[in-house]
Specification:
The chain is α+β, with helices and mostly antiparallel strands. It contains nine helices and 14 strands. The protein folds into three domains: 62 residues, Arc Repressor Mutant, subunit A (Orthogonal Bundle), CATH 1.10.10.10; 206 residues, Bira Bifunctional Protein, Domain 2 (BirA Bifunctional Protein, domain 2, 2-Layer Sandwich); 45 residues, SH3 type barrels. 30% of the residues lie in helices and 28% in strands. β1 and β2 form a beta hairpin. α2 packs across α3 and α6 crosses α8.
């Protein structure tokens, strides 16, 4: 018998193909090789996920309305990727998508596995900071990579994740988004997304990488109110319109796969011009904390490996591989 997500995908496909007509439970049971009671149980699960499905004693079932959901049925049949999102794990609630992806990695889940949840109870960003997860408003997605990268190179995938999202926000929504090195995406100087990359490695090479992305999509100003280190916003706030999260996630996974493959074949240096073009901090005075140090200087550019080049007031240039940009000031 097919697994539950696969069966639900098949039921949705049959209902969509009926073009608004009823499909009998007996027909569905026969086509899918399950009992009529099995069909009914899957229909109830789909309803619980927000699908509006009407039923008629003689007619059967009809799909009336599709929810703003990131479930298998709305994403998997429409993926425009070769390997990213295969397999695709969808959860209503999880402690964090990164935690779940790390668990799957320990169970030998394949390269390109994607975990998505409607809400997280313990979402986190870099330095263990809390990530607000208003149910059914944002996108919380983690991606598992098994490309054997040198330990120093592996964290560069964070910048690929940020770049791919900036491209989608610009091309699809017309938003002039920027990257706050190394892991935040901003719109109008306010944070719309953050990325957390976690890795397990041997001495020299990564065994696997899990990259988690949290995107504020349909959040309201009230959802994002709070004492945050950096002002927050959402795509809906900036565009003034509600956003189809399915469309955004599908576009993002497509763009990420393209950029990641370029990264694997040519290295981050091939994408440095774009990272510099879309940088929020280049040419500005910034304060960067790393370890127990804080250093202030003018952000001059990036090395071919993605490290930040910072020019201090004493004329000394510092190369920062990992850090947290705590403050961005206007260019002098």
């Amino acid at each position: 018998m097919a697994t539950s997500p696969t069966t639900q995908l098949e039921i949705l496909r049959e209902l969509r193909q009926s073009k608004g007509d009823f499909v009998s439970g007996a027909e569905l049971a026969d086509r899918l090789g399950i009992s009529r009671m099995g069909v009914w149980k899957h229909i109830q699960k789909l309803k619980a996920m927000g699908y509006e499905i009407s039923s008629h004693p003689k007619g059967g079932y009809r799909l009336e309305e599709v929810p703003d959901s990131l479930a298998h049925g709305e994403i998997v049949p429409n993926l425009q990727t070769k390997w990213l999102g295969i397999p695709y794990h969808y959860l209503q609630t999880v402690s964090s998508t990164n935690d779940h992806a790390l668990l799957l990695a320990a169970q030998n889940a394949p390269h390109g596995t994607v975990v998505v949840a409607e809400t997280q109870t313990r979402g986190r960003g870099r330095l263990r900071r809390e990530w607000i997860s208003t149910p059914n408003r944002g996108i919380h997605v983690s991606i598992l990579f098994r490309s054997p990268l040198p330990v120093r190179v592996a964290p560069q995938s964070t910048q690929i994740g940020a770049l791919a999202l900036v491209k989608v926000l610009r091309e699809t929504f017309g938003l002039s988004s920027q990257i706050k090195w190394p892991n935040d995406v901003l719109v109008n100087h306010k944070k719309v997304a953050g990325i957390l990359t976690e890795m397990q490695s041997d001495q020299d090479f990564s065994r696997f990488i899990v990259m988690g992305i949290g995107i504020n999509v349909n959040h309201t100003a009230e959802d994002l109110a709070g004492p945050f280190r950096y002002p927050a916003t959402s795509i809906a706030i900036e565009t003034g319109l509600p956003v189809k999260r399915q469309h955004l996630l599908i576009q993002y996974l497509r763009q990420f796969e393209q950029d990641y493959e370029l990264f694997l074949h040519q290295g981050l240096s091939a994408l440095i011009p774009q990272l510099e073009e879309f940088s929020e901090i280049l040419g500005k005075t910034v304060s960067v904390t790393y370890g127990d140090r804080e250093i202030t200087g003018r952000a001059e550019g990036f090395t071919p490996e993605g490290a930040l080049l910072l020019l201090q007031s004493n004329g000394q240039q510092e190369t920062i591989w990992v850090g947290d940009v705590a403050r961005v000031e206007s260019a002098p």
